[in-house]
Design brief:
The protein is α+β, with helices and mostly antiparallel strands. The chain has 20 helices and 21 strands. It folds into four domains: 209 residues, Heat Shock Protein 90 (2-Layer Sandwich); 98 residues, no CATH class; 74 residues, no CATH class; 221 residues, no CATH class. 37% of the residues lie in helices and 21% in strands. The strands form three sheets. Strands 1, 2, 3, 4, 5, 6, 7, 8, 9 and 10 form a ten-stranded mixed beta sheet that branches. Strands 16-17-18-19-21-20 form a six-stranded mixed beta sheet.
Amino acid sequence: MINRKIKITNEAVAKYKEATIDDALLQAIYNGIDADASKVSIRALSRKGEDLDLGDDNAAITAIEISDDGIGIPYTKVEEYFQQLERSWKKDAKRGNNTPYHGSKGCGRFKCFALGEELKWKTVYRDSKGALLEYSMTLDVHEAKRLNIDENPQPSSCEQTGTVLTINGLTQKFMKHYARLDALRFDVLTGLIVDVEVYKKKIEMFGVLLDPQPLKAKETEFQFSYVDNENKMQGGKVRLLAWKYNAEFINHKHTFYYKPDGGFFCKRPSGLFADTHYPAHTLIITSDVFNKCTEFDAPFNVFGKIDEAIRGNVIRFLVGVKQDEFSDVLGEIFENENYPYKHSPRNALDAAKETAYNAALGALVFENSSVVSPKKKAILKVIFPLLNRLMSGDYLLGDNIDKILALDATDAMKYNRMVSRIKLSNIINHYNILLHRYAFLESLNKLVHIEEYSEDLLERAQLHKIVAEEPWVFGPQYERGNLITSDKSLCTFLRKAIRRNDLLIDVDEDNVKIKAVEDFILKNKNDISKCLKKIPDLVLAKPVMMPIGNVNDVIEYLIIELKRPTVRIDFECRNQAQEIFTGVYNATNGGGIMIDEKHRWRYCLVSSGVADELTPEFDREGHLKQLLKGNYVIDVWTWDTIIDQARKRLDVEAKGIEVELASSDCDELIKEYRKRFGVKKRMPK
């Protein structure tokens, strides 16, 4: 094996790892199709490297294999195909049959890291003399800048060309989607409609051949004609496919133009936006007029005249499909067991309520396109209890009902189970908090681990201010209300603490001890040896109302000292923690009212690691130091530990609510930090 350098940054790898699972699978399939494969197969492999028995609930998947019967990857093309990033030879190129390539951005292979940590290709191709040769190459997510490849191709024993991509170290994100195979197959199929329907590619995914037929609502063919600018009659054929409401198209460029010999010409928007007035659809237009021009020099009126010639037939057809959809929806509405007005109204008031109910229901169904969509059945079950609560006077619900309809089918069903006992506003707020916190963790992870940010990240002006807004990251008991001081002297903290009743336990009625603390601060605040001028980064406090040993109520204090990622915890950091202890201890009369079994302290030094010379000082419990019988401890936390533990807590808190974090959420938050706190991002070298 030899190593070849890949032009990619750590930030780019992290970005591509966040690709959706269906997109990552599509990229691998597209590469096979772009290699002129007629069939692409995705298999699940067991520990023994054999096909996984999908009917065996106890079988464990350890890898996936994506194979194709394409032309393979010539060894001389590896640099061009694999070592460049976001510069693809496929851009604006076409295959031998004049059909376009899928890949044009030069990044699809890196998106496969969303599936697993190791990507291994074995490819067989024909050289210029027709001999079959093969070689292997590997990419590892932890060393993504290095492509490991066989030093030379070898003669192959295979009888045909093709490529096999084996993906090992499967991610948790993939495993979660693999648990719902039918939905995953559907997501992938919707990105392959043209390949499967028009080009007749065979895509087998975990034992099932992907077939668009069940997704079709209706299809038709018709001829069209028009008079061109030279007063000549032109024409062609249209094949029109209307997809059912469970076929979600997000790209409206689904009109495909072909020459009579089957050569691909170009693709353009249909001009009729799906999911609003018309169902998702695909137009396949064939005409010999495309023999006389290219995609780039075709006059605009060619497309305009074709659109004008076919538009009436297309709209009439799609409106009929949409009417059928609405009929299905109406039938489900009135037959649904939760629909409250199955009988004639008993009086005028009931009649008025029914009219208002049906008016609101009609507006939701017919004006909100998301209702007549893949989540239709689930969302209807949610709409009925929502409207019942709206009619009973929950006007907050009326203000937020669009947010509920924006939930996907799974979350809609979960909301349906909660709606009867939890206020809508609480649900929405909780959901939004989870989204923000997941985005914060991803953003913090980038800031402290990706060198484009971490090298220039400032402790006090940036990192401190960012983390101070998110104290929950240090433990489930800490929220903003638990932050006592941020970047303030020990004098300020002590004065705040002794004046708050909830932060002191069993203080004498005459406040003698509190007065003694105030007097001590006043007299000694400028004495360097008393350490009252020391400035801890963050001080948090939380009353814990639960038995701990022989004590029923305890106040937990947490002091956080933040260090930028490039700084390791050393003796100077440890000494600073001890000086803070000295200041609190002296001010509170030898511990007294603030450091005892009822007031327990943890001082945490936070950075990316510990200096080697400090390692021997940790005790058996993992503390850097324990003072006053363990009521004041000094610890070290790494950014990795904080982020991982916080993410696990969020996962538990979500309790089955799947929070999909878009990469844009993280990008927007980092953009905000760059604007507010001046966080810098170095350009990739």
